[in-house]
Amino acid sequence: MRKGRAKKRILLPDPKFGNTLITRFVNNLMFDGRKNTAYQIFYDAMDIISTKVTEEEAVAVWEKALENIMPAVEVRSRRIGGATFQIPQPVRDDRKISLGMKWMIGFTRKRNEKTMCERLAGEILAAYKEEGATFKKKQDTHRMAEANKAFAHFRF
Fold it and tell me: Which CATH number covers residue 32?
């Protein structure tokens, strides 16, 4: 028998901006428990963004970029009568944020700037302008859901 749902852990806000969403992002960015290094990478990226974008604050740019890459729908596989169908489903708010962050960090690591903070700043700016690999991933996800709209009545 299955146990109950896991309790949501309460995250502390980050030390510089006082934002819990930043803490969540840094936790995804972190490798081998090196949280200070992850924070340093994020804050350096924010400094780079603040020099490139003058009209808005760096954290606002990051939040808008994250908003631009969060998917509204996704496809889930479901076996029906021996065939597997890709069924489009709306994404929960919590999962939207998680997918957006993970996609952004994944594509940041694949970029070819010299340092991680430059890569992260580049990816955030690209997402802010609604371009780049992360935004393309969101568009592809939406396109796939649109293509499989005929199977939406199989939703569970």
Answer: 1.10.455.10
